[in-house]
Amino acid sequence: MSESHETRTGVPYDVVVLGAGPAGANVADRARAAGLSVAVVERELVGGDCAYWACVPSKALLRPVIALADARRVDGARQAVTGRVDADGVFARRNRSVSDWDDTRQALFLKSIGADLFRGHGRLDGPRRVSVTRDDGARQILTARHAVAIATGSRPALPDIPGIAEACPWTSRQGTESSTVPTRLAIIGGGGVGIEMATLWQGLGSQVTLLARRRLIPRMEPFAGELVAQGLRESGADVRIGVQVTALRRPDPEGPVTLTLDNGGELEADEVLCATGRAPATGDIGLDTVGLTPGSWLDVDTTCLVQGVDGDWLYALGDVNHRALLTHQGKYQARTAGDAIGARAAGRPLDDTPWGDHATTADQHAVPQVFFSDPEAAAVGLSAEQAERSGYRIKTVDLDFNAAQGANLYADGYQGHARLVVDLDREVLLGVTFVGPNVSELLHSATIAVAGEIPLKRLRHAIPPFPTVSEIWLFLLATYQHDQETP
């Protein structure tokens, strides 16, 4: 069907989806596969932040920077590197990756599955009702026979710093859509967005200063942040840890920004980028009309059914339920929710016993995440600290990647580190962390091991091919076995 522009009232559908990002599109697809009619409401671009301001453009921008760094790590190739990354070429590549911010292809996908797209601002209007207000002010009501799925995502959370309004800081959006390289860029925040933006803009020619209150990427193992900080410093970035910004000044909107630091010092930059977390994009979607708090994260069960709302009709998937603010997790949740919606709509008993525990593992305990910094940092499951805090009896196995010949063939003097977190009582992996060039490609094997709770005695028979970086598995498992056999 074509996009809907009617101004009718009370248009009935089986399912209404708020948000057409990856999670919204996937739950729509799953519901349509179950034979249900679906309306999808989107106020911005179909495809969401991931496609236009986050995952896709950031990786398109970062890849040339990392490719050049990789070339410099290989003798014979480094001699061919005679200049810097060409910023204009990188921006052109980014523009192609986001289709010049044209969502036609994404909208055609919704059409291809038979979902109706309504462009405008969607809000709940009581149980099973959604009000859609278009840009021209026209308003219509959609009704849902079976389900409303909230997939509105999250937004950048700006810190409460005096002067932040006049400073007009970049967020991750400006960090991925800008086509101008600032001479000096200050980044506030040492999480995933902060380190990726620091890697990117330092590589494009900015002098980057990264300011973090505590260690970098604090939810990963400590060595991950340490190695990423080392890599940023080697690239020329100024990384300051244990520093807090107490005020911002930008008297001239076209002039520089002055950052006041808690140690009494000041820093001047041409732009400042705030990478200080995310907030739920639920402030103006009518949560109050169904008894929920506007602007809150939404609590859900294993089928993504929102708790605290009667009738088993309201679902929340992706960032809004705060389980894991990652595209791949949102898509996983969407498939789960779509199957649950289809079963409930058909009146089939929904027994999630066979898969409920697995869903909890995949959605909470075996979540894979990669930061495309240089070096890359990739992890799944629990860190050693998290595992101990949860009461597990654990052993950690640590190795540098130079133990694997394949790593040394990948890059001369390959620098990286790997850790396994082992549950000693069951002899399965609770978590795995890799830091080093291209380690993102190792993470799915780790995710399978953690999510599948594969016994280590069996995992030892999964033989990595020679000579690859994945040989690190062989040495990690052999080290664990040796340690267990040695009195």
From TrEMBL:
Protein's UniProt keywords contain Cell wall biogenesis/degradation: no
Matching Gene3D superfamilies: 3.30.390.30, FAD/NAD(P)-binding domain (3.50.50.60)
PANTHER family for the chain: DIHYDROLIPOYL DEHYDROGENASE, MITOCHONDRIAL, DISULFIDE OXIDOREDUCTASE
A GO molecular-function descriptor: oxidoreductase activity
Keyword Nucleotidyltransferase set for record: no
Bilayer-spanning residue ranges: none
Cofactor(s) this protein cannot do without: FAD
Domain of life (superkingdom): Bacteria
Official protein name in the record: NAD(P)/FAD-dependent oxidoreductase
Enzyme class: oxidoreductase
Gene source species: Streptomyces carpinensis
UniProt-listed Pfam families: Pyr_redox_2, Pyr_redox_dim
Keywords from the named record: FAD, Flavoprotein, NAD, Oxidoreductase
